[in-house]
Each structure stands twice: as C-alpha cells, then as structure tokens.
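REVIEWER CHECKLIST
Item 1: Sequence provided? yes
Item 2: Single chain? yes
Item 3: Sequence as submitted:
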Amino acid sequence: MRILPGVSDLTAPYWRAARQHRLDIQRCRACGRLQHPPGPSCPRCHSSELEWSTMSGRGEIYSFTVVHHPVHPVTAGHLPYVVALVELEEGPRLVANVRRCPVEAVRVGMPVSVCFEDLGEEIALPQFEPAGPPG
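Item 4: Structure as written out by the authors:
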C-alpha cells in the first residue's frame, strides 16, 4: 500500500502523462520558462499561457536525505529510503524517491533517470534511479 498523491485540475495533466510513463512539465509560451510544481501562471512573466512539455527524464541529484523513521505507517516497511531533489537536465527541480540504488551509494551530482512506479490504474509515481552504475 502507498500514499496516493492528490490530483487537482491544475496537476491532472502531469499525472496523466505519468500514467503513460512520461515526465511532462509546464512551459510558459510567452517566455519559455519551465516550472514545477505546476502553477496557474508563470512566476517570471506572469503569463497564464502555459503548455505541457515532455522532458528527457535525465538529471542529477541536487540534494537528498535518507529517511530512517516512518513518516506514515505505510512507509514503515520501506525504510530506509532516499528522498531527493533532482535537477532535470532541462533545468526544473523535482522532489522524488531514488530507487534501485543502495542508500549509501546516493550522492550529490549522481546522474539519474526517471522511472515510474504504477500505483494502480490511475496513478504512476515518477521516481528516479541511477543512470549508470551506482557509486
């Protein structure tokens, strides 16, 4: 069992893309800025002309923490786990788990690529895994 993310009208396109194992991020049509999390307008130029663009899914760990204490009863069986701030090669940063890697091998600057955990028919959760051999 997992804690499912909330889906709103604003975030629905993000989650629809994730169900198809695509990482889509909002892009401002006026100035080109990419933004995550999604918003109703561009924080740079304030335009409400936003579209969704598919990212490469490649990036690197900008920062991370290792969680050793369950923050919710459903996470107790998954300890320890890594929560990372991943900087995509296109620029935006996302918070996600790092999977398929020993926690002691995770490091700042480590290349990662997106992977998806299917949580039923409605939600696929974007996460990241090492892009090459861990270490």
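Item 5: Key structural point noted by reviewer: The longest strand covers residues 58-67.
Item 6: Recommendation: ____
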